[in-house]
């Protein structure tokens, strides 16, 4: 059983502003996959004209910034996040683009909209930050129209395995750390979604990064260990950095493999008797 309070508090700590998210996204810009993750997600969402769309956990709004040319002008789009400061950053990034988008602070467990009003709900890399996923999925299912789609992305249990193994050598990564996340991964997502949705499809995205300098990797690692939750990391920071330098001197690169996935789940079509 996960510590629900810890899951919530850790998410609030990690994403009280946009810095950690921006730092992590920057690492993947060094990747070998020619298609960015945001463009790949959008190609699978396939938003249609006149659809009503809600994104939960929109972060800095990068999904919409990178796909501005492919957003139907007739859509009604609401971007939301639980973090006021994160949502402010999304507004700052997106409002100058003159897109048909509104912004709301929303708790995914208690979505404040009437039943069956959205054609698409999107949740990118956010379900595992929700203490009660089942409660959130009930709320998402409720606001989706009959036949509506829930698009959710997550990571594999093997995501950044090389980095996890490296950090384990310093006692900085363990299964106990995973108690700070709820269970929703590539390997488990279908079973989590199955009670609430039908026609579940899954797509995998792999992006291997070969880091050749210390700074991008150290910045990424530091974003994983906020001082308030991991004071021990500060004591080992110099040691970790020195170890990375030695790896780069020996191999010329530090390989990190990102493995993400996207689930497209449809709300069952409700048949009404005439």
Describe the structure.
The protein has 274 residues and is α/β, with parallel strands linked by helices. The chain has a domain at 4-156 and 182-206 and 259-266: Vaccinia Virus protein VP39 (Rossmann fold), CATH 3.40.50.150. Helix content is 37%, strand content 23%. The chain has a 7-stranded mixed beta sheet, with helices on both faces. Strand 4 (118-124), helix 6 (133-143) and strand 5 form a beta-alpha-beta unit. The protein is globular and about 60 Å long. It starts with a helix and ends in an 8-residue tail after the last strand.
Question: What descriptors fit this protein?
Answer:
single chain; 274 residues; alpha/beta; Rossmann fold; 7-stranded mixed sheet; 10 helices; 7 strands
Per CATH, the architecture of the domain at 4-156 and 182-206 and 259-266 is 3-Layer(aba) Sandwich
Largest sheet: 7 strands, mixed
The CA-CA distance between the termini, in Å, is 46 Å
Strand order of the largest sheet: 3-2-1-4-5-7-6
Structural class: alpha/beta
Q: What series of H and E elements makes up the topology?
A: HHHEHEHEEHEHHEHHE
Number of strands: 7
- Helical percentage: 25-40%
Classified in CATH, the superfamily of the domain at 4-156 and 182-206 and 259-266 is Vaccinia Virus protein VP39
Q: Enter the CATH topology name of the domain at 4-156 and 182-206 and 259-266.
A: Rossmann fold
| Mean pLDDT over the residues | 91
What is the count of helical runs? 10
